């Protein structure tokens, strides 16, 4: 295999011309033949037993070319990229120049390379002061959530109130006809949860057990189902049961039941410490985000289109994976939100561009600051990963890609720590400016007073 690389007229774009020896291409054809022989049914031969030359004569000499190309081209392309030491950021656009048995296989691959980055400034960035303090109300809210989680439901005979849980049957109609997905039996609904269309839950308040009622609502204009969006609807509702939540008393016994602590005060202290840690993490993330936004807004970079498409691909794949956990496919989701895949991808574009710019900016900072990840730091991350996945560290230590990924993460973290540490808060700047202003005003006042005294002396003379 041999290759040559040349720049195209487009910025950050190069073209590889890769040549694979005729003998290697011939061997790939033979390999593909043996893989697929069982599928060929040619008169005069048992199925899958026809020789290669007979199959080629019967179906055409190029019958195996495409599969043979796919068999070897990808591997040879990857080798060429590795040897070129170029940082490729897009998928290759392939064009076959020569593909004939007995001749060298020649093809081109046009790709985009990592763009150059110019950072305007990354130290001394001014950001708003970011600080989160734990309030008593935050602790109370956490305790309330714990009460909710440990509440028990008891049936009541009183009319429905906000906060009650009702067991209902319902069926929805638009234009006098029942619509799909608008019917359920023995459905459990917490009144005030906002689970249903606006106005639905409010109209159940006051209903009694076994009472039936027609509830009239209007679907929101932005409702996910286009057939129902903005339409008036009537739901026939019957209440079967009304339940009320009984919350446990907040005392030492509650603390013992829901935690490892013996007193409510100890539980409160633990909640406060946890919230303080969460606030620190939140502050750190928001400071990093604020500084990076300033850096990326001022940096100069021409991001290749292919790089953006690859980033969007990764984001969509991540979204598909998360949806699969809910038993949902992308096609179904697109139908629900009434968007094409092209429109869906376009929505991701701004986020993809910002993500790329952040990554490129960090890489440039790492380069300029000579930031490194030591073997000890990588080893610690490997051990942490192994522990999280319940595996042995040795399994990850053998994988150079994993180690490189972890090393890059360490360097990114160091770069973020650096730019946050070197940043300034606008609050501090304002304070400094106000002191400066106070000094100026004091000087002016002193000067005025001195001038007044001089004038007074002149007048007395």
CATH topology of the largest domain: Trigger factor, domain 2
> Helicity range of the residues?
40-55%
Compute the number of helices. 14
Mean pLDDT rating:
90
Structural class: alpha+beta
Q: Which shape, going by the Cα principal axes?
A: extended
Strand content: 15-25%
Q: Which quaternary structure do these chains form?
A: single chain
Domain count: 4
Largest sheet: 5 strands, antiparallel
Distance between the termini: 105 Å
Instruction: State the total count of DSSP E strands.
Output: 13
Order of helices and strands: EEHHHEEEEHEEEHEEHHEHHHHHHEH
CATH homolog superfamily of the largest domain: Trigger factor, C-terminal domain
Output the CATH class name of the largest domain: Mainly Alpha
Key features of this structure:
19% strand; single chain; 461 residues; Alpha-Beta Plaits; Chitinase A, domain 3; alpha+beta; Trigger factor, domain 2; 5-stranded antiparallel beta sheet; 4-stranded antiparallel beta sheet; extended; 52% helix
How would you sum up this structure, described in words?
This protein is α+β, with helices and mostly antiparallel strands and 461 residues long. The protein folds into four domains: 2-114, Alpha-Beta Plaits; 152-246, Chitinase A, domain 3; 276-420, Trigger factor, C-terminal domain (Trigger factor, domain 2); 425-460. It has helices at 22-36, 52-59, 65-84, 136-149, 200-204, 252-258, 264-298, 305-324, 330-337, 341-369, 375-389, 393-397, 400-421, 426-460; strands at 2-7, 13-20, 93-98, 105-112, 117-118, 126-127, 152-155, 165-174, 177-190, 212-218, 232-246, 300-301, 424-425. Strands 7, 8, 9, 10 and 11 form a five-stranded antiparallel sheet that branches. It is extended. The model is unreliable at 428-461 (pLDDT under 50).
